[in-house]
Structure formats: structure tokens, C-alpha cells
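hiii so um. not sure if this is the right channel but i have a protein structure encoded as C-alpha cells and i wanna go backwards to a sequence. like what aa goes where. can anyone help
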């Protein structure tokens, strides 16, 4: 799990917190599996996983904790717990819902990497787990499935990213697909 080593371990605390947040959430394991497959653009086949999503998350937590222990002298503390901002939650939920038809076509309708129920799974993360994590997963799925967005959507995503305190590359890493739209 190379992600724990990104930035010389700088992302390990955040990755650990994200994994714990999902592990401790009411989201069913199937929802975690669906989002895992969609985030990495892998076909979802129920009951044919080599590891279920909760086992995968526990492994991520272990790897991150090992990395954090190695770097203890560099990190003073784990990231603070997120405080939900209802306006941000509603804004993220609106963006997910605005692209629901396109997301469904791209994910569930993909001929090789089909994943069902991505939109309801994202909505549950946004409303029941954490809007920040839900937004980052939403962006990841858009990028993985090359779902086109308009310039106004891109602008709103950047504004949401700023509101969440993201580094500009979280939203704008060059992999979002822009498509002019009539509306």
C-alpha cells in the first residue's frame, strides 16, 4: 500500500482516519466494496472479491499506523476530527445528484469495469460518514471513469475543495474531463 508512503508518509494520518471513518460507519461492506471498485475502476462482482472492503480497510489502518510510528518524530498528532458543516454536506450531495445519470451510465453501464449502485453508495458516505471523504471519493470516481464535467461544475468543485482546505491538486490534478454542455 504505497499510498501510506506518499509524500514521505505525510498522507498516512489522513488515509488512516479515512479508513477508520469508513470502518466505523454504518455503510454496509457491500457499499465499501462498490466504492473501492469504482475508485480504482475495477469490475464489481459480488461474492468474488479476494478480500472484502472492511478487511481491506483494516489492512490500510495497519499499514498507516506502521508508517506513522516510523515517522513519529515528524508528526506531532493525528489530524483533528472532522466537524460536519451541513452546508458543505448539502453542496456535495447536490453535486453527486447533479451527475447521477452520467455516473450511473459510466459506472454501472461500463462494459468491462461495471460497478452498480455507485451513486447511492456515494450519497451514503456524504450523509452518514463524512462529506469531505464523500467528495474526495466522488472526485476519484469521476476521474477513474472519465466522466465529463462542465466548466461551471469544475469551478464549483474547486470552491468545495477550497472550503474543505484541500491542496489544489486534490481537485485539479489534470485528470478531470471537461466537456462543454448546453445547460
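sure thing!! here u go:
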Amino acid at each position: 500500500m504505497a499510498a501510506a508512503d506518499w509524500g514521505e508518509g505525510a498522507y498516512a494520518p489522513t488515509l488512516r482516519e479515512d479508513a477508520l471513518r469508513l470502518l466505523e460507519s454504518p455503510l454496509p461492506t457491500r457499499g465499501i466494496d462498490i466504492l473501492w471498485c469504482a475508485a480504482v475502476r475495477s469490475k464489481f462482482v459480488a461474492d468474488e472479491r479476494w478480500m472484502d472492503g472492511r478487511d481491506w480497510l483494516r489492512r490500510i489502518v495497519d499499514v498507516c499506523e506502521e508508517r506513522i510510528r516510523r515517522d513519529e518524530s515528524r508528526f506531532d498528532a493525528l489530524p483533528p476530527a472532522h466537524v460536519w458543516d451541513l452546508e458543505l454536506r448539502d453542496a456535495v450531495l447536490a453535486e453527486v445528484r447533479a451527475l447521477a445519470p452520467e455516473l450511473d451510465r459510466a459506472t454501472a453501464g461500463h462494459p468491462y469495469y461495471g460497478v452498480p449502485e455507485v451513486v447511492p453508495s456515494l450519497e451514503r458516505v456524504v450523509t452518514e460518514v463524512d462529506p469531505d471523504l464523500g467528495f474526495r471519493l466522488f472526485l476519484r470516481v469521476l476521474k477513474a471513469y472519465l466522466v465529463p464535467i462542465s466548466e461551471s461544475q469544475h469551478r464549483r468543485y474547486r470552491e468545495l475543495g477550497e472550503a474543505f482546505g484541500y491542496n489544489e491538486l486534490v481537485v485539479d490534478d489534470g485528470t478531470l474531463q471537461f466537456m462543454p454542455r448546453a445547460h
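oh and The beta strands are 148-149, 177-178.
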